[in-house]
């Protein structure tokens, strides 16, 4: 009693979710929603890749259409982008207009699972470059959060000549060296000396609380998925209720850390149950939870400092949207160590980990601002 979400998904609230799912949720209606954008499938390197491809219905005379590849993460899906797509594909005033391509990562949703061990973000990056090439694009913009941010950053490292710009709402940083430790220690007292802003300090300190204890509390799933994903996955593949609890708990605390204290996990303050359950259903009907969890093992079972992308820098124009409720905050001064050409860095006023799903308007505005700057419009 009174546990809210401190022990994980609240069992009383779960009964409400299950009751709604059984009695009111209309999957056929949600399939119609999913089908409002065109779906495609193509085979790349022997794997069937699912993607949606949305072109603007109207393009003003003389306006260039920018191709934009948007990549999701875990436990999300291509569906995360459904609210942001219309904001990007409808030209407003003299703003840029995009055609948007949203693939499902192999092993997620309607993309086939990889056939062999070792399929990591670099392999996904290679496949998505081939996808864009197959669609006839020579140059394109990239956007990602969660695993999508790592995949798109790898794409920028791999073929920089094809990437016009990279926009991220989560930053993966490599090894934490002595310089970073000194920066953390000095940052609490003389932040300006180590390049930290007031807002960085507000978001990062007290450092142990926000970057160690909070992270430790939220990363239990990561240790399981990075080591023995199939064991936990068996139960989730067998139980729709277990699957819903496992996935939706992340949509609570990763959206806002304070939702831990709410009996309903704050879920319906940001999303509708239809939206949340549609994402769960994408995992359920495709039996893809195990293959999606394996992606952690493929990426985290080797020394992060020894991977091919660890020491490579990103030189393409980069835009960063730093949302205040993101799991970890990366200051611009730290991001610059890897991303050598940061064009825009925005402290977003609100929002968390699932930015496109939760705050589509804010994210769309930041993407447009970044692309305008790159294109010098």
TrEMBL record:
EC identifiers of the protein: 3.3.2.9
Active site (record annotation): 146, 296, 353
GO annotation terms (biological process): arachidonate metabolic process; epoxide metabolic process; response to toxic substance
Alphabetically ordered keywords of this record: Aromatic hydrocarbons catabolism, Detoxification, Endoplasmic reticulum, Hydrolase, Lipid metabolism, Membrane, Methylation, Microsome, Transmembrane, Transmembrane helix
Domain of life: Eukaryota
Taxonomic lineage from the root: Eukaryota, Metazoa, Chordata, Craniata, Vertebrata
Primary location class: endoplasmic reticulum
Epoxide hydrolase N-terminal domain segment(s): 5-81
Annotated protein name in UniProt: Epoxide hydrolase 1
Catalyzed reactions per annotation: 11,12-epoxy-(5Z,8Z,14Z)-eicosatrienoate + H2O = 11,12-dihydroxy-(5Z,8Z,14Z)-eicosatrienoate; 1-(4-methoxyphenyl)-N-methyl-N-[(3-methyloxetan-3-yl)methyl]methanamine + H2O = 2-{[(4-methoxybenzyl)(methyl)amino]methyl}-2-methylpropane-1,3-diol; 8,9-epoxy-(5Z,11Z,14Z)-eicosatrienoate + H2O = 8,9-dihydroxy-(5Z,11Z,14Z)-eicosatrienoate; 2-(5Z,8Z,11Z,14Z-eicosatetraenoyl)-glycerol + H2O = glycerol + (5Z,8Z,11Z,14Z)-eicosatetraenoate + H(+)
UniProt-listed InterPro entries: AB_hydrolase_fold (IPR029058), Epox_hydrolase-like (IPR000639), Epoxide_hydro_N (IPR010497), Epoxide_hydrolase (IPR016292)
GO MF term list: cis-stilbene-oxide hydrolase activity
Keyword RNA-binding: no
GO terms for cellular component: endoplasmic reticulum membrane
């Amino acid at each position: 009693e009174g546990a809210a979400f401190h022990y994980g998904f609240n069992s009383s609230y779960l009964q409400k979710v299950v009751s709604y799912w059984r009695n009111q949720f209309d999957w056929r209606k949600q399939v119609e929603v999913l089908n409002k954008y065109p779906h495609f499938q193509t085979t790349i390197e022997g794997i069937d890749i699912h993607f949606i491809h949305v072109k603007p219905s109207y393009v003003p005379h003389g306006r260039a259409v920018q191709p934009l590849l948007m990549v999701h993460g875990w436990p999300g899906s291509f569906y995360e982008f459904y609210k942001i797509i219309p904001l990007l594909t409808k030209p407003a005033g003299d703003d840029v207009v995009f055609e948007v391509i949203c693939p499902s990562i192999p092993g997620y949703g309607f993309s086939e699972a990889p056939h062999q061990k070792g399929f990591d973000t670099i392999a996904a990056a290679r496949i998505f470059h081939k996808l864009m090439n197959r669609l006839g694009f020579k140059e394109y913009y990239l956007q990602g959060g969660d695993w999508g941010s790592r995949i798109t950053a790898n794409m920028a490292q791999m073929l920089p000549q094809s990437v016009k710009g990279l926009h991220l709402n989560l930053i993966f940083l490599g090894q934490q060296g002595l310089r970073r430790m000194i920066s953390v220690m000095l940052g609490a007292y003389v932040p300006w000396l180590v390049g930290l802003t007031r807002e960085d300090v507000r978001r990062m300190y007290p450092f142990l609380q926000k970057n160690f204890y909070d992270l430790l509390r939220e990363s239990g799933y990561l240790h399981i998925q990075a080591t023995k994903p199939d064991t936990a996955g068996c139960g989730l593949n067998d139980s729709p209720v277990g699957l819903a609890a496992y996935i939706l708990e992340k949509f609570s605390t990763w959206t806002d850390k304070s939702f831990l204290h709410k009996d309903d996990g704050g879920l319906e303050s940001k999303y509708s149950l239809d939206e949340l359950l549609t994402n769960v259903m994408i995992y359920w009907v495709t039996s893809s939870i195990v293959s999606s969890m394996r992606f952690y093992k493929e990426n985290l079972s080797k020394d992060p400092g020894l991977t091919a992308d660890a020491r490579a820098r990103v030189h393409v124009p980069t835009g960063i949207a730093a949302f205040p409720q993101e799991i970890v905050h990366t200051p611009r001064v730290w991001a610059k160590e890897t991303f050598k050409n940061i064009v825009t860095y925005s402290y977003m006023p609100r929002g968390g980990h699932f930015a496109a799903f939760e705050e589509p308007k804010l994210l769309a505005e930041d993407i447009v601002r970044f692309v305008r700057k790159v294109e010098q419009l």
